[in-house]
């Protein structure tokens, strides 16, 4: 099984595991989120260590070590992106499985189990037409100031949504045009979504226009822009004016 097939397979199976945990009725709320995180993480970590024993691994739910820093190939996973949404039995949560090669998000799969979808970096479909007016996805609970101000400046409608993966895939799926985030994330929040978005020909960068770089000693990533390429320069210039 090649890397792209492995990423998609693991994301899909982890998603099914999470649906089963939720359907069991044994947990609810925060306890459901914790149980789902732990169960999916155990599956993903075990599978990757078995299938790709020589690669590095970074998971939100496992203790990080410096071993991965010496690796060219590093798998970066988020067993449940959007634990709150998963626990609330919403559909805007995701499973992320990505492979970063020399810091570049090269291969990725994002499962949206609530929608029975898996989007892959190696199997991009055609991008739907851009919206009119433009639509910008933002956090449903804490929209970032920069995002709301840029949206106002360019006349974009705000589309509240849950997890980072769900928001990024909304751009891929044509439900929105721009995902601008400045509230801070970690590598596992964006690596798989960025890989998929790049595979679909979208713009992906920091909000200053610099590239997204993964497998760093500090896994914190302050900001992110994923959008259709025709909107990138306009959004970046507006962000620069606000800085």
Written account of the structure:
There is one protein chain. The protein is an alpha/beta fold and 243 residues long. It folds into 2 domains: 3-120, Fructose-1,6-Bisphosphatase, Chain A, domain 1; 135-242, D-Maltodextrin-Binding Protein, domain 2 (3-Layer(aba) Sandwich). The protein is built from 7 helices and 12 strands. The protein has helices spanning 3-23, 29-51, 83-87, 145-154, 164-172, 187-199, 229-242, and strands spanning 56-59, 73-81, 94-101, 104-112, 117-120, 135-139, 157-161, 178-181, 185-186, 203-205, 220-221, 224-227. The strands form 3 sheets. The protein has a 5-stranded mixed β-sheet with strand order 1-2-3-4-5, sandwiched between helices. A 5-stranded mixed β-sheet has the order 7-6-8-12-10, sandwiched between helices. Strand 4 (104-112) and strand 5 (117-120) form a beta hairpin. Helix 4 (145-154) crosses helix 7. The N and C termini lie far apart (46 Å). The model has no long low-confidence stretch (mean pLDDT 95).
Cα separation of the termini: 46 Å
Overall pLDDT level? 95
**Considering the protein shown, what is the CATH homologous superfamily of the largest domain?**
Fructose-1,6-Bisphosphatase, subunit A, domain 1
CATH topology of the largest domain: Fructose-1,6-Bisphosphatase, Chain A, domain 1
What's the CATH class of the largest domain, please?
A: Alpha Beta
Q: What is the name of the CATH architecture of the largest domain?
A: 2-Layer Sandwich
Global geometry:
globular
Q: In total, how many domains does the architecture comprise?
A: 2
Cross-sheet strand order for the largest sheet: 1-2-3-4-5
Please indicate the percent range of residues in DSSP E strands (runs of 2 or more).
15-25%
Most strands sheet: 5 strands, mixed
Counted by DSSP, the helix tally is 7
* Structural category: alpha/beta
Strand and helix order: HHEEHEEEEHEHEEHEEEH
Low-pLDDT segments: none
**Nearest-angstrom radius of gyration?**
17 Å
Tally of extended strands? 12
Overall helicity: 25-40%
